[in-house]
Amino acid sequence: MNPHGLWRTLRSWLPFASLVLAAALPCMQSNAHAAPPGALIVIIAQTDDPVHQQALGAFAATLSAHPPAPRIETRAPQDADAATLATATLIVTFGSAGAGAGLGTSTPVIHALLSRATLDALQRAPGHGPHTALILDQPPARQIALLRAALPEFDRLATLHSPDMDGAAAELGAAARAQGVALHAIRIEEEHELYPGLRAALERPAVLVSLPDTHVFNRYTVQNVLMTAYRLHAPVLGHSAALVRAGATLGLYTTPVQAGQEAARLAARVLDGAPLPPTSTPQLFEVGVNATVARALGLNLPTAEALTRALIEAEEAAR
Questions:
Q1: Structural domain boundaries in the chain
Q2: Helix/strand/coil for 65
Q3: Of 126, 197, 207, 211, which has the highest C-beta tally within 10 A?
Q4: What is the DSSP string of 273-302?
């Protein structure tokens, strides 16, 4: 598909992109804020994790671009003691372990680099003070718009999900129906149901959409799920860059650098006096394409850069 055709396809889905933007607008304002004197941000992250290191670097660089920047102290989850957290003006956590260590404080907290399922589990825990989150889950309308642009020949989608992801599967189904696409969602309650469910979901031509569901996609299952989909000639839309590298045909995800940038911009606004906004989905994202798998499936996909650019332009035009 040429760039002009890709743009025309995406323009037809602009009304649905407005749903994405409604949730994301708080993250799109200027980040040129000055921190109050003496402001301290305590970051809770696994500093030996390469993903967290990328996010932390982007966070610090984004804040420093608009001086005067606040002081920043970084603690590993096991070292985030109550006394340290009590001195903070704002706490920013990265990942699920960091988010858990940020419970039980009255200081405002921004959670980043975590899924909605992880956040929901935290919100059920006692002692959670004022908080918001920048979750990694991509808006369903954006996922469907990508698939309509990249794989317009498919009018049927499939997904597998655990009971923990009932809500996410329902949201994906609603977004698909709104754009004239069918979704076959199969609920997996026991491990032995995974592969029979996968084959049932893909008995008719469909794109398999992966949700950030560790009961379905984890280090023990991912290769077999991707291989089964490939043998059934089903493209896979992955929710992470790692899945694209592992064999998903394409992916839609927010990188660690982008997550760090978004967290820094939100932190700057909060330090400038803005209230904590509601939890939001990512404003920044990338599309990934596994050209080798696409060719093997006989698919002629636009480049990842063209798809990313077209999605961004479509969402900007829908403001």
A1: 23-136+256-271, 138-253+285-317
A2: coil
A3: 211
A4: TPPPPPPB--S--EEEE-HHHHHHTT--PP
